[in-house]
Amino acid sequence: MKLTIVGTGYVGLVTGTCLADVGVDVTCVDIDEKKIQRLRNGEVPIYEPGLDLILKNNVEKGRLHFSTSLKDVLKGVEVVMIAVGTPQGEDGSADLQYVSAVAGEIGRYMEDYHVVVTKSTVPVGTHKVVRNAIQQELDARGVDLTFDVVSNPEFLKEGAAVADFLKPDRIVIGTESEMAKEIMHKLYRPFLLNGHPIIDMDPASSEMTKYAANAMLATRISFMNDVANLCERMGADVNKVRKGIGVDPRIGSQFIYAGIGYGGSCFPKDVKALLRMGQEMDYPMEVLEAVDRVNNRQKSLLVEKVMKHFGRDLSGLKFAVWGLSFKPKTDDMREAPSLRIIDQLIAAGATVCAYDPVAMEVAAPMLPASTLLTGTAEAAVQNADALLLLTEWPEFRMPDFTALKAQMAQPVIFDGRNIYAADDMRKLGYTYYGIGLGE
Prior knowledge:
By secondary structure, the protein is α/β, with parallel strands linked by helices. The chain has helices at residues 10-21, 33-40, 51-60, 97-109, 126-141, 161-166, 178-188, 203-234, 238-246, 267-280, 286-298, 301-310, 337-347, 360-363, 377-380, 401-407, 422-427, and strands at residues 2-6, 25-29, 64-67, 79-82, 114-118, 147-151, 171-174, 198-201, 318-322, 351-355, 372-373, 386-389, 412-415, 431-433.
């Protein structure tokens, strides 16, 4: 089977590489010539564990190709996937200009039947937008060609995307065409050996499934953060509460960890897009409105704790920050809580010295110019008045706390991810603040 994917961002690159790894002949298309050349050389422009090795292997074996011209790679292709960005517009809605542009280009250059698949996260009804854009170009050419449009949302977790794709918990196919359904089932057959299902539905339901999934996970996070803030005021420990509710099979243990709010490319954007869809349908999504408010508030919580301890004027104080990316195992800085936290610290007069194992290069242009970036975690804490743990990278979990204390001007830790044990920290002589620990 031959397949073309338009867009070599996170979704497009992971999808194309993993499909090539099971024997599909894949060409990834992007207008960025420098990026395409890097990919041809086996260089991966994003950090995703395991992706670089699989990509290089499939490039060398001739199953994975890269091009800047969609026109040149459409012939003989059964499936064309659209995996371009859908950035958030000023009103919170998803911007479909890139999706529409690719659909139009497919209609302009197609010569035979294609299954056109939207992998990008798109609002409900986008399958009609894609269909119309293709048909308009075919009509302008005066040609009569058949095609089908399929919604096939991705459910990849950054930091575990390769494993998620190769061993999916479900594959959602949204189409009303039996021919397209058969082709999509054939495409995904190699991934079904673990017994997880393909779920067939109409395109609109498929598009909504993606938003509903991310919105539900975001809701769990914000709910637990709300509970954590109440625990703190009432002397309860949210970590114990989490364990107490997580064993309930109706609830489960995932996405109920208290912290400093969610970030990344999906949850913030998708929650706002779903809120916008509700407004357009004159149906306020009241639960999601609260989810969004709680998350925005949570990103400032750690700075409030800092100011409660040190005072609102942080001039002359130095703060070490461990972790910049919105989560471990990625260099993604989109909507990362660290951005707001560092902005607020510096605005209050503080000096900030930060370290992240992977995201430093991506983070640098997004941070205030006065932010100091160091090559090691140890260098960041030299003479620091406090350490702020913002991303739970594995290397931060068990540092030498005795040596760390000796390097700091003041032994104060603000743990935004609750990865350290409060009692242990206090026995070691630290002033310790976590999230929702009844301090």
